Amino acid sequence: MVLVDITNGEPTPSGSVEIRSGESAKASKILGLTKRICLELPNRYLENNLEYRRVLAETIRQFKPRWIFTVCRPDAHPDHVHAGELTEEARFTAKLTKSEMAFEPRYAEKIIYYYATHLRVHAQPSFVVDITDQWDRKIEAVKAYQSQFWLNQSDPQKKGWIIDHITSICGYFGNRIGVKYGEPFFCHELVGLTSVNHLL
Fold first, then answer.
1. Which residues is 67 bridged to in the sheet?
2. What is the predicted pLDDT for the residue at 10?
3. Which of 17, 110, 146, 184 has the greatest number of C-beta atoms within 10 Å?
4. What is the 3-state secondary structure (H, E, C) of 119-155?
5. What's the structural domain count of the chain?
6. Span 119-140, mean pLDDT?
7. Vertex 38: Cα angle to 36 and 44 (nearest 5)
8. Are 7 and 43 in contact (CB under 8 A)?
9. What is the chain's Cα-based Rg?
10. What SS3 string covers the chain?
11. Do residues 135 and 30 touch, judged by C-beta distance below 8 A?
12. Taking the model in full, what pTM does it have?
């Protein structure tokens, strides 16, 4: 699995490029990622434009993913909104022939959206994945980001608030499919099963 960071997160209220890079490396090791890269597009100033679309399209052509995961909209964070838009348009752009883009054309089969919205909305997922067996690893990976969820909180009661947040959400969706923890995903396109035996 290849994880692509569109920006390096700078500037943010706490941490630094070096600190976040170390945190990302730690989380990547916990998750067992085969590769993680940063495209170094501008945080806070991300736009859906031709230049950035090409950068992402060439990345798709380079790594040839079958599926692409990106943030689900709507979202109050403009970077999240533009990241989703860029991903959709880069997916199409990546398949173009008669182009000066690097690497061979590639069209990913599906874009699957995960929920990381800053809006307090109720997710309407297309499907929910049982992540109970992966829960401890998920939490350990999130805890790698100390600068973003612990050290940036002056109120001791709010340090690590993200753990309670995702526990509530994943616990709810897990309950809806009859397991302890579930991760909701959205997809505009139909999601097929090889067998009804794979239904929970």
1. 110
2. 87
3. 184
4. CCCCCCCCEEEECHHHHHHHHHHHHCCHHHHCCCCCC
5. 1
6. 96
7. 140
8. yes
9. 18
10. CEEEEEECCCCCCCCCHHHHHHHHHHHHHHHCCCEEEEEEECCCCCCCCHHHHHHHHHHHHHHCCCEEEEECCCCCCHHHHHHHHHHHHHHHHCCCCCCCCCCCCCCCCEEEEECCCCCCCCCCCCEEEECHHHHHHHHHHHHCCHHHHCCCCCCHHHCCHHHHHHHHHHHHHHHHCCCCCEEEEECCCCCCCCCHHHCC
11. no
12. 0.94
d(CA 106, CA 88): 13
pLDDT digit string (tens) for 12-48? 878 899 999 999 999 999 999 999 999 999 999 999 9
Backbone angles phi, psi at 114, to 5 degrees: -105, 160
Q: Which two tokens stand for residue 95?
A: 């398949």
Domain limits at 187? 2-198
Q: Which residue has the tokens 């090409």?
A: 54
Structure confidence by residue, pLDDT tens digits, 66-102: 999 999 999 999 999 999 999 999 999 999 999 999 9
Give the tokens for residue 45. Answer: 């100033």
- Residue 158: give its domain's CATH number: 3.40.50.10320
Identify residue 6 by its one-letter amino acid code: I
Instruction: Return the higher-pLDDT residue of 121 and 13.
Output: 121
